[in-house]
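FAQ

Q: What does a record look like?
A: Structure on top, sequence underneath. For example:
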């Protein structure tokens, strides 16, 4: 039964649309925890389009579960993470123009950069995860660079969900990658594009420990409220 991490970035997206103080992602994180979230994820993007440093600082202080900070390998943000010391960091690729994280980090092409970043984060006591595509080479290289965890990108699975043949193919890729990662001693998480329809098959993959889900929960919360949206997802995941 995987744990549920709720990504609160899009509460901050609404706030930043008017550069106001509301809705506050820190308040949202408290509501998510009360509704059963096992952790809170926030992505501090280089362009600061949603989450701000102030949010990360406060989340680090007030959460009673744990903070999973998503970030690109950029010198400023790395410095900030080492200072703030979230429980977990998930390193992701980042492109300025993308609407959301489009693919996994290419670990094999950035081996030395990732090796140093992971080493630095781990030295600060931060458990470090790499957001990767479900691919054998990426899993094996994640071990080489010293990662503790891999988060498997479920975006391709989510995109083809209504095409059963392609869905099954993507599920198979995820199962194989999850199995290999566990065999090699990594913790396996998954996320991206998961929603109330497609989450159950991913939650049933043996050994997946955490699912990080954002957009679908916040979108539902607009209509039913955040508490109910998190509870309904938690029921599906568990
Ligand atoms: N995991 C990672 C590493 C991500 O970058 C994102 C998106 O910020 C998510 C999970 C959550 O994806 P979604 O918002 O599609 O649920």
């Amino acid at each position: 039964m995987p744990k549920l991490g709720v990504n609160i970035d899009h509460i901050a997206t609404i706030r930043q649309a008017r550069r106001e103080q509301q809705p506050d992602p820190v308040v949202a994180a408290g509501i998510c925890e009360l509704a059963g979230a096992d952790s809170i994820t926030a992505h501090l993007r280089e362009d600061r389009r949603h989450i701000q440093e102030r949010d990360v600082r406060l989340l680090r202080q007030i959460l009673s579960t744990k903070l999973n900070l998503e970030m690109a390998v950029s010198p400023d943000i790395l410095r900030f993470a080492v200072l703030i010391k979230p429980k977990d960091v998930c390193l992701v690729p980042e492109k300025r123009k993308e609407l959301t994280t489009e693919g996994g980090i290419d670990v094999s092409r950035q081996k030395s950069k990732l090796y140093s970043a992971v080493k630095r984060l781990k030295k600060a006591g931060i458990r470090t995860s790499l957001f990767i595509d479900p691919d054998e080479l990426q899993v094996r290289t994640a071990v080489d660079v010293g990662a503790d965890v891999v988060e498997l990108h479920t975006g391709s699975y989510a995109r083809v969900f209504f095409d059963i043949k392609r869905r099954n193919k993507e599920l198979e890729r995820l199962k194989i990658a999850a199995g290999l990662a566990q065999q090699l001693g990594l913790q396996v998480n998954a996320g991206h594009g998961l929603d109330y329809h497609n989450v159950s098959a991913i939650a049933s993959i043996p050994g997946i420990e955490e699912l990080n889900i954002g957009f679908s929960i916040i979108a539902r919360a607009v209509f039913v409220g955040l508490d109910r949206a998190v509870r309904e997802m938690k029921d599906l995941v568990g």
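Q: Is there anything notable about this one?
A: The chain is about 50% helix and 15% strand.
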